[in-house]
Amino acid sequence: MVKKSAIIMITHGSRRHAFVEDMQKLATYLEEKLEVPVFLSHNEYTEPNWRNLLLDLTEKGFDHFVFALAFLGRGNHVAKDIMGEIGASEFYQWTMTKYKDKEINVYFTRPLADSELVKLALFYRVKNAFDTDERQEYIEDPEEIEERTMSIIREKVKEDLGVDGEELEIISRAVYASGNLEISKQVYISPEAINSGIEALKAQLPILTDVKMVMAGIRWKKVENYLDSSGELAKKLGITRTAASIRMGLTSPKIVVIGNAPTALVETLRVQKEKSLEIPLIVASPPGFTNAVESKEELIKSGIPAIVIKGTYGGSSIAVAIVNELIRVAMK
C-alpha cells in the first residue's frame, strides 16, 4: 500500500489574527520548499485544533504524519498534550501508533530552542539594540579606501625592503592586488625593467597578454590577446592554447604580460630565442606548482627586462596592477 504523507505544523495557538497569519506564512514556506502538503494547526485557542485536523486527515487516507512543532521549548504542551496523547515519546524517529482506532506512523521534530539557527537569529535581533549608537565608522569613498590602504602598504614595504620611488610603488601595487604583504618579498624587478617598460609605453607599443582576464584589466588602448583563435595552432604544435596565442601575437616588439599561464611564459622565452626578438618588458606572475616557478626563474636568468612574482605566488590581478602602475607613470 502506498503511504500518504502530510506535515502537521502545530503551534501553541493565539486568538490574535496576526499570530495565525505569521504561522501560516511559515507553513506555506515549508510546503513550497518540501513539496509535501503542510497543514497549520494549534494546541488551543485557535482552529483548526490539531486533534480535529488529525482525525480529518486520517479519514481522507493519510497515514504518515510529520509533526512540525512550532514551539520554543519542551514544555507540557509538547510532552503531554501532543506527544503523550498521540502515543509517541521520541523525536526524529518514525513511530507506529494508534489514534482514535486509526493506525498511523508519526514523526516529531524537536522544539526550536536548541537550534543554532534560532539562537543566531535571536542574537542578531538583540544585538541591534546595542549597536545603534556605537557603530564603527567605515570609510566608503573608494578613492579614500585605496589611498589609505596604499599608504599603509608603502610604509610597511619601505620598512621591510628599504626601497623607494617607482620600485616601491610597483611592489606596493602587487601587495594591494594580492592582499598579501608576503608578496613584497617575492617581487623581482630587473635593473632596467621599469624604465624600459615606461619608454615602450610612451612609444605606444602594444601589450600582449596570456589570458583575456589580464587583457580586460589593463588600462591601455593597444592590448592584444589571441586566445580565441589559437586552437588550431595549439593542436598542430601540441602546445597549450595560451602558448599558441603568445606565438601568434609575438611577431614584433611588444610588452608581454603573463598573469595566469606558465606555459605562455615558456613560449614567450622560446619565441624570443628563436627570433632574437627585442622584448622591452615581460611582467610575469603566473601562480602554481607546475612550470610556474621554473619558467619565472628562467625569465630572471634570461636578462630580458622583467618584473616577476617569484615562487608559487602570483595571479592575473597582480600582473594587471603592475602594468597599470607603469601606464600611470608613462602617461603623466
From TrEMBL:
Residues 144-328 form the Cobalamin biosynthesis precorrin-8X methylmutase CobH/CbiC domain. Pathway: Cofactor biosynthesis; adenosylcobalamin biosynthesis. Keywords: Cobalamin biosynthesis, Isomerase, Lyase, Metal-binding. GO terms for biological process: cobalamin biosynthetic process. InterPro entries: CbiX-like, Cbl_synth_CobH/CbiC, CobH/CbiC_sf. Pfam families: CbiC, CbiX. It comes from the Archaea. PANTHER family: COBALT-PRECORRIN-8 METHYLMUTASE. This is Precorrin-8X methylmutase.
